[in-house]
Amino acid sequence: LFLKNRGKLPWPVKTGFISRKFGISPHPVLHNVQVENLGIDIQTQKETQARAIFEGVVKAIAFVPGMNRVVIIQHGTYHSVYAKLKHTTIKVGQYVQAYTPIGTVYTDAQGTTELQLQRWQDTQKLNPTGWLSKK
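Predicted structure:
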């Protein structure tokens, strides 16, 4: 069911743009340094609500240094991971639908409000971009 929705899933925020793509890219400041992004970063406005992109069960909510609050929602063998949340509004074990609010996106000290979205199939990290609907 989840696989059939490839390219049709809603964005996890109402408005925003991809500020960092999936995969390996040059570090924005340090020359000759590569960084790996396991998902995509989506910049949005302050106090934006993050929302589930597909129905599923909330498997984990955790605090990860550098990523702030992280939510993992399971959709069969697939998982969506939402990182850089200020706080969450759901509970582990809760069943959510697409568009269910899951929390508020974190704004850093520089004023950047950015959500990271990751897509996993079992333990393999997939590029989330192709799963989302075109804006």
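Summary: The radius of gyration is 14 Å.
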